[in-house]
Amino acid sequence: LTAYCARTFHLAQYPDWENYLFIDPDMLVSTVEYILRHQTREGSFYEVADHPWNRKMYGL
Q1: Residues 20-40: what's their mean pLDDT?
Q2: Can you supply one Gene Ontology CC term for this chain's record (predicted)?
């Protein structure tokens, strides 16, 4: 989802739209940096969770 949003925001940066829609370039940079920090070489993401997944919460 993060990569999809970064791509969408990047594509939405048209000079004609800059008076109506401002996308902070620093936000795009930090989004891509986040992806690069958390993505493995195979393209998957490792799970970073403060709380373990609890099956009882989801009725499983």
Answers
A1: 91
A2: extracellular space
